Protein 1
Amino acid sequence: MTSTSTLAKACRLRTATLVGLVALVVAVSPSVVRAQFLHPKIKSKESLIRNVVILPAKVQVVRDSMKGPEGMAAESELLSDRVEKMVAEVLAQKHVTTLTGPAASSAGDGAQQKYTVADIQAKFDDLLPKVMKKRSDVKKGRFSMGDEVLNLNLEKTADAIIFIRGQGQKLTSGKKTFVVLVGGMPAYLKLMIGIVDARNGELLLYTDPIFAGDPTTAVDRLRKALEKSFKKLSSAP
Amino acid sequence: MNSLRRRQTIVATLCLCLLVSVCGQGATARTIRWKPQEAPQTPPTPQPKEDFKFTKVDLELLDQVNLLDKRFERDGLVLEDEATNAYLKRVGEVLLPRGLNLEHVLWKFRALRDPVPNAFALPNGSIYVSTGLLALMDNESQVAAVVAHEMTHVLRRHTYLQNRSNRKKFLTMNIIAAIGAYAPGGVPGTVITIVTAVAPFIVLATMFGYSRDLEREADLKGIDMMIAAEYPPEEMVKMMKVLNMDIEGEEIRYFYNDHPALQERINYLNSYLGARADKVTPQMELNREKNAYFTKTESIMRHDTQLAMNAARFRSAVYLAQRLVDFHPNSSENVFLLAEAYRNLGPRSPELTEKELTNNAKKDAAKKRAKRTPEEEERDLLATPAGQQNWKMHQQKAEELYQRAASVENPFPAIHRGLGMLYEKLGRPNEAVPEYEKYLELAPGAADRERIQRRIEALRRTQT
């Protein structure tokens, strides 16, 4: 009788420990999601980021209704602009200056310059899934876009190029009720931000802030998420 | 108790009815739109969907695609080449039924800077053909085949219809999920749980099935449009065969596909064409057409070869550059592009083997592509004897081609940049630096001047 109750106690303890562990993982996971991955050169302060150029952000949000997702092209454009500006503001707090975008090349016309920017953006889009698969490898200096980034002909003082991607969803009131009653994905915004060396294309920093809430209106939450995302980046002198 | 059980049975029956009605809807739609048709002798020109009435949902979708159109332009995805877009427009206008005026449609025909062979239509009348597809084609009739297919999507309002259908199906899936979340116990509860677990897959299958039906309609109506515009319709079949080549080994068949399999498309197009499939346009005429097409699209092909290299589609780059050299062997730029393609191909084999083209092998390759960067792939291949051999052979071939390109009249300055990069990779900095310098001398305003200057500086540092 005694041994049965001891066994039951041990079982309960094991279950409690398991539940505790799961709770701990759940509690810790949001900070993991907001983690920043720094290239050794940035971590050791061998390279400092003083001036950056932010390439046009590509943030896509959809309105999720009971009848499926609907596009929000205009809102996505506005949000992309807002994220770009906010990243510049957050970096300014760290004394990082945002320079103007790629200058018109001396040889090519406007279309050629547009193509160059599009090609570099496409190159980042190719690299991004690989980075997301193993974000910690940024710390090993594994990822690079190559010296083709120099084709952007940025200002000589530019140290880094910032690429911003994002995806999110807003819920209609019907879907909100559905999520509460049945479950499902809440409204959220996830950003994927890469800072790339403007001279050799090495990925210097990768961060992917995420927050729950309406991506089109949660301005403060967006700012806080971005501030946390660049926490490890040391301030420029 | 009895009333509770009765209620549970009613819920379970309702759930089943809902599912059956959704599946039935797809089947009905299929029966109405798709009838195995015998090839008519004089096919009717495809008519727009006359009974189509715009709803609020359709107009919202129209707003979205109008913005998408602008975004493609702004992001540098549209090829800003007037000659190419005018050419596509001419082909589109030849195919367009005369005197047709469709509500909320403004026809635009444009080339998209994308090395992946693809084409698509937006419901506002914008037709995009990727440079990757244009570069693979042989003649104008094949362009017409693609444009006719895409125009049918617009004429028959496929995007709106699919959007409407998907919305209904999403709603059904959500209702089923809600019922499943509150399933009662007992036998009816078990039935509901099973039905709600299986239902999403069935609904999803009907979504893809509907999409495949619309594609099939676009193929067949496209053939009719080609005949009406006096383009040889068999070129649509040839177009499918071109797509079926799968140079990069990326045509993977999954359980769900929104397009019918290419071989299936070839089969039903052949059967639809019936006797007309034999009336093949004389080879001489096709050659003439091919010549005219290559003359018109040589610059797009060059542009796309470069795009293919940027996107690590090295096998496609070799294939396309070889086509360019075959067409115009004395062009320094064409030979240069072939040299670049071989240099970038590095340790990879120029063509995929039959084993590499099986569905499982393609799935494995796709997984590896998602994990490894092209540089890592190259490093891994170089660790194998076959990779080493390929690398040696391709670098040698590239060097020969660069030298051939330099010996042609009006040599392309970038040949020296290519040679510089080749020698740098081969560990011959003494030869690389002069080539880079020669390039900068011949192209003083090059957009990549700073890049090359930095390479020269780095190489000089290693020399000292």
Note: The longest strand of chain A covers residues 160-171.
Protein 2
Amino acid sequence: MATYTPRQAAGWATANLVVVVLALIPVLWLVSLSFKTPAAVLDPSLWPAAWTGGNYGGILTSSQFLRPLLNSIGIGLISTLISVVLASMAAYAVARLRFPGKSVLIGMALLIAMFPLIALVTPLFTIERALGLFNTWPGLIIPYVAFGLPLGIYTLSAFFREIPWELEKAAKVDGATPFQAFIRVIAPLAAPGMVTTAILVFLACWNDFLLAISFTSTIASRTAPAAMQYFSGGSVFTVPTGPIAAAAVVITIPIIIFVLFFQRRIVAGLTSGAVKG
Amino acid sequence: MSTNTQAVTTGAPTEAPPGRKAELSEGARAERRLGFMLIAPAVIVMLAVTAYPIVYAIYLSLERYNLAQPQDTKFIGFANYGAVLSSSYWWQALEVTVIITVFSVAITLVLGMLLAFVLHRTIFTRGLVRTVSLIPYGIVTVAAAYSWQYAWTPSQGYLSAAFNNSAPLTSQVEAIIVIIVAEIWKTTPFMGLLLLAGLSLVPEDLLKAAKVDGATAWQRFTKIMLPLMKPAILVALLFRTLDSFRIFDNIFILTQGSHGTGSVSILGYDNLFNALNLGIGSTISILIFICVAIIAVIFILGFGTAAPGSDIGRR
């Protein structure tokens, strides 16, 4: 399409290089730290002077990390599943059906998406303790679903508007109820949008720290980001820097895999709800 | 999973439409009923986790309630608000939060715009650049915060070594700068992608025509691109501002709020989990909620930001 003079091409190439370097250096630094021996950690160079796999060996055999990692995966997947199912139902209604109160729902979703989480921590902490949900999986899943829903409703209603709805009409003409039309015809077409939404919601759950440290007290339900700070001073590890860096790398790997395989979907999902012409 | 089924069974009947609209056709009524049934579970979960706790927080904020002395719990009206608003801790935390928000959002806007241009104009390596720039967006904030913390640890980190073995996390101003840099690194890709979506709405022909008419690059940017991108920019700014105002993770890992670097979220957390003071903690929660509401109102009324999603269903 556009053609550049060599000079312009060099300029854009430099800009690209700057972007890549700036984005990657903090991540590569973590990788480097995670392979440094306890002695080499005290050397600020980006390339480890002495390599070891011991940091990974340490955390991957310690229940102090494995259990939280399992919690992160389990809580993230269950929250994502519930969020996407509930959000799909609501987004279908928003995109397709006529009923009063639609703008109230959208306004409420916006309000919750931007909610200052800390404002909920104190009352939810009290409520969860009273209900026996404190330090349990549901104690994190319920708020994660609540905060995944606005994201899901936005993204999915944007996707649902792009679906060829004549098919739904055709199904109704053929005698399907609106509910059957939803399950049999529209849901399969909506699958790509639902995958995108699932990724965004899962990333949000995977990333959460404030709720995770507030509503957990042991590794029974503590997620990986919340567990890392407790590596420090533990008798298992002599120097916590290496193990923490290794844990940080481990919880970053799923992100990198998602980004590599689904970058188009993630970009489409991020921008669908927010920018419209 | 239990919440899911529970919400559906308890919620659907109460949300059923009133039967008085007799003039509605059978089909329209069925559509309404289906609409309410489909949104009911989502609405119930969202209300249960946000609206109810906020009302409960208002109630708690009017009480003297410390978990260390539960027998001393008592309704005390607005005394907690007086205590917080006359405390220097609150005002310092608010000041730190506002400074971090203003600087990180402003710089992120400029850098995000540059990133959007790079992504927009790059031909050969667009996929690579976009993939790489998504990593800061996706990475767990805590993991990135550890990277920054170790990078600035004297005689251990590469950034500290590059800056004369400095220890910026131990002084207020420098630590706040480090926190702002960490925020910018993390959020610039998100801003860039939102702006890129706005940028792709600018017709290429319009830019070419302006160029033929002798408009400079700067004029094309300010007179054509910016006005056309205004909705995208305002929505991105609203998102980023409200998100930045609730900053917690980066500060918690980098400084734990020491040396006067705590944000309002850190202050609220400390009052709950270190002081065990539910009354004061709830008061801080409500005050943060009011601040966020004010920011949103300023954006929507002052700048004419369309609430994102407000046009859903109109098309």
Note: Residues 2-47 of chain B form one domain.
